[in-house]
Amino acid sequence: DAHLIEEAKATLIKNDLGGYTVPTHGLYPFQWNWDSAIVALGWLPFDEPRAWEETTSLLSAQWKSGMVPHVVFHKHSDTYFPGPDIWGVQNSPDSTSITQPPVLASVIKILFEETEDRALAESQIKTIVPQLIDYHLWWYKQRDPENTGLVVSYHPWESGMDNSPAWDAALEAVPCVDWEYTRRDTSHIDASERPHKKEYDRFLYLVDFFRKMNFDDTLIYQDCPYRVNDVSIISILHRATKDLLTLCEKIGVSNDQTAYLVKRLDLTEGAISKLWCSETNMFHSFDTRSNTMCKARTSAGLLPFFAGLVSEQQTQPLISVLDKWLEHSTYAISSTHPDDPNYEPQRYWRGPIWIHINWMIAIGLEDYGFSQQAQRITEGSRACIYKSGFNESFHAETGARSGGADFSWTAAMALYWLL
Ligand code: DGY
């Protein structure tokens, strides 16, 4: 392991652009929101100030509304499309106009609890906690203005699970963008491991749409042709809000805002059964435009464990699904269930194994007392890294590399969780 640990550190150092870490050079040459949160955990064991800095550089791009963008364009790069000119946001630093799964507060809680430099932790937390509160308030108020208990997402890029089969039907309702463009991703990675053009056409339509709406939260909520209750975002947000409130308690922050967040947790707990399907015995996302469930069986459907949102009655059926899934898997949990008709073991979020998702599922299973399954997932994740190194993701069946190489969040998970 000593050699792998050194390699993982070297990967983060290589991807460090000074205060933030790119997911990988070329394919993703900027700062990504949930990548950076996970990456902070990788810096934690060997450079605590740098771990904090990863999070504060991300928060430096927070919008006045509280939103924390999905990509921050700190420095120019021409290896990525769509860049800041296409998003059309005029902020400093430049950013996209959407967000990503808000795992950040859960990470900050870990940094606060596990870093040795207490003076640094105490001083960081003073500025970070109010920013996190603003971010979470933004999520609930702007993404669930009707108080349904379930926030919405406006773009598959917000889920981070870009081409998950869960989005197929909802995306069909989105028009195609009417201008020609040149993708850059497929010049770095084989097209068989990336989304199709029909998906990109719609991804870009939505980017244009946000700009045409002048990024107005209310207008977008009303008119966005893609509007989904994403079970992964909802679960990650729920866990992160609980972690944020625990942190607030520890540092003695208690006010109207924290009381409001407590109420929001209750609302979500009362609403989550809308995402449970008694035919598949899993959780699914929900398309609020067509009022239908996104029936694909994906790893997102296991994340309610991470959130503590699985009820007593749902626990055994969901564990049975998980056990069968693991029986099929030499490695860890694939992003799409092998029996799903749209499963593709090598294509991005339609099959490959993503280590940080497995980490969250394993934490959730431990919380629910299913240590054996959590252990099995941990070992399978470790086996991917032993076999193929620090890749973006791993072929669902062979554990071979898939997506980008020298990938920060996989190296970070190795350093924090697996090695
Ligand atoms: C991409 O460009 O592939 C990213 O996933 C967007 O976040």
Automatic annotation (TrEMBL):
Organism per entry: Alteromonas gracilis
InterPro entries named among the record's database cross-references: 6-hairpin_glycosidase_sf, 6hp_glycosidase-like_sf, Glycoside_hydrolase_63, MGH1-like_GH
Domain Mannosylglycerate hydrolase MGH1-like glycoside hydrolase: from-to ranges: 28-410
Protein name listed in UniProt: Mannosylglycerate hydrolase MGH1-like glycoside hydrolase domain-containing protein
